[in-house]
Write the structure tokens for this entry.
Amino acid sequence: MQPVRVAILGGSGYTALELIKILLRHPGAAIVAITSRQQEHIAELHPSLHHRLDLRCQPFDPDALQAQGVEVVFGCLPHGASMECIPPLLERGLRVIDLSADYRLRDVSVYEQWYHEKHRDPQNLAHAVYGLPEIYGAAIERARLVANPGCYPQTAILGLAPLLAHHRIEPAGIIIDSKSGVSGGGRTPKLNFHFPECNESVCAYGIGHHRHTPEIEQALSDIAGTPVNVLFTPHLIPMDRGILSTIYATPTGPIQEAELRELYRHYFARQPFIRIRNQPPATKDTAFTNFLDIYVQPVRGKILVIAAEDNLVRGASGVAVQNFNRLLGFDERTGLV
Amino acid sequence: MQPVRVAILGGSGYTALELIKILLRHPGAAIVAITSRQQEHIAELHPSLHHRLDLRCQPFDPDALQAQGVEVVFGCLPHGASMECIPPLLERGLRVIDLSADYRLRDVSVYEQWYHEKHRDPQNLAHAVYGLPEIYGAAIERARLVANPGCYPQTAILGLAPLLAHHRIEPAGIIIDSKSGVSGGGRTPKLNFHFPECNESVCAYGIGHHRHTPEIEQALSDIAGTPVNVLFTPHLIPMDRGILSTIYATPTGPIQEAELRELYRHYFARQPFIRIRNQPPATKDTAFTNFLDIYVQPVRGKILVIAAEDNLVRGASGVAVQNFNRLLGFDERTGLV
Amino acid sequence: MQPVRVAILGGSGYTALELIKILLRHPGAAIVAITSRQQEHIAELHPSLHHRLDLRCQPFDPDALQAQGVEVVFGCLPHGASMECIPPLLERGLRVIDLSADYRLRDVSVYEQWYHEKHRDPQNLAHAVYGLPEIYGAAIERARLVANPGCYPQTAILGLAPLLAHHRIEPAGIIIDSKSGVSGGGRTPKLNFHFPECNESVCAYGIGHHRHTPEIEQALSDIAGTPVNVLFTPHLIPMDRGILSTIYATPTGPIQEAELRELYRHYFARQPFIRIRNQPPATKDTAFTNFLDIYVQPVRGKILVIAAEDNLVRGASGVAVQNFNRLLGFDERTGLV
Amino acid sequence: MQPVRVAILGGSGYTALELIKILLRHPGAAIVAITSRQQEHIAELHPSLHHRLDLRCQPFDPDALQAQGVEVVFGCLPHGASMECIPPLLERGLRVIDLSADYRLRDVSVYEQWYHEKHRDPQNLAHAVYGLPEIYGAAIERARLVANPGCYPQTAILGLAPLLAHHRIEPAGIIIDSKSGVSGGGRTPKLNFHFPECNESVCAYGIGHHRHTPEIEQALSDIAGTPVNVLFTPHLIPMDRGILSTIYATPTGPIQEAELRELYRHYFARQPFIRIRNQPPATKDTAFTNFLDIYVQPVRGKILVIAAEDNLVRGASGVAVQNFNRLLGFDERTGLV
């Protein structure tokens, strides 16, 4: 069987690099095009790709991509730019996995409230599928446009799903205290990501207004069948990659640790990338993998959940390939183990 | 005026090193003795002290310390060892600032429950003063034995004090999510502090049973005048030093951000080392200083407090010198700015 | 075709972990046994292996390994221990790739001089092949015992091979200034690898007596056909992995940059894992890969060579699999790209 | 006695921040003005200065500085900008300690060759004194304009001074392999200082054309009384601060380790900030201090020197204050221990 011909939009950032590395190991995918404003050889942008991928970046041109026989496009553009480029691709019958936030929030007004800009493609938003395979797996398989989930939201949504699905916690007052490596901030140099600023330091940011909040609430409300509210506090940690979310929720009734863990094991029984741990995971346990590790414990009247992932693999490019596998009918693990 | 003659017990660890560096700049203190099982020159134990302190470590001997004219002793021993060494010093009339946990918990049974060992000096425990100057300042001035506070507890106690003193938050359901640099774990090599294990990684530890919990609750209950319960989750962060505590509490009634911040500014108006910040602090803002920075914001039905400090200075040796200054009648800031 | 049944001796360290991760992706190898003094499940020793390898460590027993059908054994034991365990395996007809230093130095007296202990298996040493595929490729294919090369030596040997093979530099006065991440020091907690000691710091160690010196000189002398002497200075860098060697040599005559680079490209033309770079490589360009990147430039009367690698992959477990591939007749790149 | 009124030009960078912190502890200096294009409160630019310095940055205006009674100006501007601002200050009789490179190279043509720009103030260059106190101490005391030395050059110059002064090494073929923390690159965000690029990585840069080369050679030639040539290779290390230079030189004749070390001890006998170490220093031993630690050892036909310093204190702002102390007649150590 011929490998599926794929293209990547926006090749200069970290999610594109991670995606390339994963796809190079994927027996069913061939990278035939990468777009970038910088039309350099991909190994000039990412020196680690020397001798691994011999491709020069090309300007974005939907006709050219179609002519190159591209079947699936991965979007690694910033939000805002994504909704400019994706409509012409869908029109030409290409399928798209978009790693930006443009198609994640079903409600246009919520998007506009949190992203402070007009949504310019409500038509495709209407049929986009939120690409969290463990929750929306069946819909992903039939999708033309997959809105790949955010890095933080996956830890929060998967960390809380079993509890909310089984009504074991109150849907209000949930606290999500997240810690992320710096690569989550992207590859554009900024003072707060300048090495001597963020090394040897920890700080919180985006308190009360981080854009992943409505994304978390949308999925959790789906799962709970009732509106869910969260207080989400992200922190910047001096490491390259990894997200650890420490989550605090109020149980609806008494529950034991063993029962809790069993609830989680059962809920995720068929999910190859979810590991229910007996000890609190370190982000390093998941580094460079598509695993998302979850630990749960009742403590002092609360239920505490810890979820760990690699923000670039599981949190972005790995789950994108997991979605690709579902979309194309590959085994979900292809290229990811 | 002659400088006060001081001794340090347990010279090989990080708090001792930090204490030495601070005291070398203190015009009113002279380090005349350092004890250690390793009877080496202090600069052999801590190479950064070459040409700065010419002193060989000596075995612990209370008579020798008395004969050397020592007036104040800083204890940098592990808990358990402290309560063995401190009684003979107090008997000989020396004053002691103990950086271990042995004299922090007033209730012997609480100590024994959390530290899993018998308290062997209840007599001195009875008159020990908890050395958090911003809260117990007057008592410290008259103390013979100061129990220097833990690193995490200071961020939690000072971060919540204004709210609890003014009954602006519920005394239950308080969540303290803390992030600490690795030096907080001490200088003894262990796998979880081995560089390739904890670098590039974040994890929680001691969930529900970290020994700083009762210390936090004791002080907060004093301040509130009613029992306070907290859920405290410490995390290990890949950096040398710094603690950031993100604290979530439930307000007793509506309160605005400006009012909150004013409440804090007023509460700490006379405290030279507390800075009420308008932006969330980074631990680096406090690195190598005795400042404790606090940020407070109402968010999504909760009050969120962030408190940052240097765990070795403010969290241990700096506050010990602040206590020393109060004990001896120096300006509180001496040697610390 | 059935995958080759392999065993790993000494499963608790970093090279074993890295080897396991590589072999799990290798279509021609099946890990059937891992030995360790700690007879725990491998995922207890290495939490990242949960759901990836379901194997309990077993005590070392050559008969058991033979009975399990093991064909190739990877030794991840410390030097000294290796030469105890390997003879009985070879006797039973198993082939061995030993990652320790025990079989690297052909001359027993050199081993004993640098390792300060008696060599207890000179018989097998006599037929062991030094496992640097780019230099000793043909011999590796016929070997029963491969002495996998050290991490530093590979950067030095491959970095200098083209120059010495073509007599373009003097064989004396070569300076190798190497910088290594901390994982190179192993997984046993020690003060100099304790996070707060080695983080935010750089230092040299083993000056003039590091044991990789004779290993470098042995291979370089083979290549040059004349004795080569080097001054090798390793440094510890605050990062998990990566080695960068900056090498200074004296040219035997004038040579231009372009000619130099062409010499390197030609010398390594058939080597899939050597990349001759036009810019000085960063260790990160090679992280988690088996590539060794080389840069060469004439500068101020010297020839400067920079060689970068991942010390755990290329420097240890990756090259071990490369050797395995040669030994078993697989494509050299299998499992490594 | 009134403290000396000082101003700082260019308050937004790391050397200015470090200088402010040192001067705040200096009993003989009062910071009365800080200039910056960003006319914000200094604590807005550097949050660590909250409650420590209450000063708003002002635009550069030599008349205003004079009117404010400023006596000494520290220049923390980039090279090029310095030589624009300094002439009008000298004209008004202010003394200047310039931390840029503009006045370090006596020979205008050398400056223009290495900095690729015209020198626009040769007149003041003619009387500027190179501010390395251990070498040019007497001249500094009489200077009107001190050219504060570069960070790397200090390790190289002081590391080699005793050997060259006593003709114990050849003046040619000297190799200086230096490793620096990232703060040495300044505070302007750039891709190569972006956390996820330089963390977990080491690389060389500026090979053969780093601008500190002629500065090193100028001072070493002064000391040797003959032209000295060096090959200087800087490397970027994932840490905030610290420089370690590993230096290789060829001895002019046989010399023993003890004699070497004695030579160094004697040469620097009166220098309070030079520590001759018996063990290779780690940069951390010197962190946040003005000490420069030197280790020397004969090895394999070469003399190896290791010199370690904090690049922001000893390498820039600390030595600037040391120069200030000499200029003003204070004890050299004032504010620095």
User: Anything to note?
Assistant: The CA atoms of residues 72 and 95 of chain D lie 5 Å apart. The longest strand of chain D covers residues 292-299. The interface with chain B takes residues 24-25, 47-48, 50-52, 200, 272, 275, 277, 279, 281-282, 284-289, 291, 293, 337 of chain D (CB under 8 Å). The domain at 4-127 of chain D is CATH 3.40.50.720 (Rossmann fold).
